[in-house]
Amino acid sequence: MSHRILIAYASRTGVTAEYAQILAQASAFAADSVQVLKMQDVRDLDGFDAVILGSSVRFGQWLAEAQKFVEGHQAALAQRPTALFTVHDLNRGDDAASRVQREAYLVKVRPLLQTRCEGFFVGRTDTARLNFFERLLTRMIPQENGEPASPQTLQAWAQTARTVLFS
Ligand SMILES: Cc1cc2nc3c(=O)[nH]c(=O)nc-3n(C[C@H](O)[C@H](O)[C@H](O)COP(=O)(O)O)c2cc1C
Q: How far is the CA of 81 from the centre of ligand 1 (A)?
C-alpha cells in the first residue's frame, strides 16, 4: 500500500538536509509519495499519513527550530505515526555511556511525541559553513574519529522506519 510521508528537517550546514534527501530516495519508500521539507516551510501536516522528523544537534539538543516545530505541531503529530532521526558528531560509540548521552539529545522533544522509531546518524562538521564563533567552539570540543553515516546506513534505517511506521 502506498503512503504519503513527510520528511521534515532542521539543519544548519546542510548535513541533515542531505540525509533527509537520501532517506526520501531510499528504495523502502519507492511505492510511497515522500515530500522533504525544511521544518520552517511546513504549514500543517494535513494530507500526510506519517511523519519523519530529523534535526542535527547543537550544544546537546535538537536545533531550536526543531523543538519549536514539535511544540507547534504536537497535536497533529499525535494523530500520525512518527519517526525521528538525529544527526550528531559526538557520542557515536556503541557503548552504553555513548548511547545514554546521544539519547539525551532528545530529552526536550521526546515527552511531546509518541515516536515509533528513532535513528541516530553520525554527521560531519563542515567548517567552511560555520561562523567564527562556531569554528572556535568546535576547535575546543574534542572531535571523535570515524566516518559520517553512509547512504547504506540511512537506507537501511529507512526500511526499518517504514516497517515500524505502518505496522
Ligand atoms: C556549534 C556546534 C555545536 C555542536 N554541538 C554538538 C553536540 O552537542 N553534540 C553532538 O553530537 N554534535 C554537535 N555538533 C555537531 C553537529 O551536530 C554535526 O556537525 C551535524 O552534522 C551538523 O548537521 P547540520 O549541517 O544538519 O546542522 C555541533 C556542531 C556545532 C557547529
A: 27
| Residue pair 36/26 in contact by the 8 Å Cβ criterion | no
**CATH code of 161's domain:** 3.40.50.360
Length of the chain: 167
pLDDT, tens digit, 9 for 90 and up, residues 34-67:
999 999 999 999 999 999 999 999 999 999 999 9
pTM of the model: 0.96
Name the residue range of residue 94's domain. Answer: 4-165
State if residue 100 touches ligand 1 by the CB under 6 angstroms criterion. no
Separation CA 104–CA 37 (nearest Å): 25
User: If you measure from the C-alpha of residue 39 to the centroid of ligand 1, how many angstroms do you get, rounded to a whole number?
Assistant: 18
Per the structure, how many domains does the chain have?
1
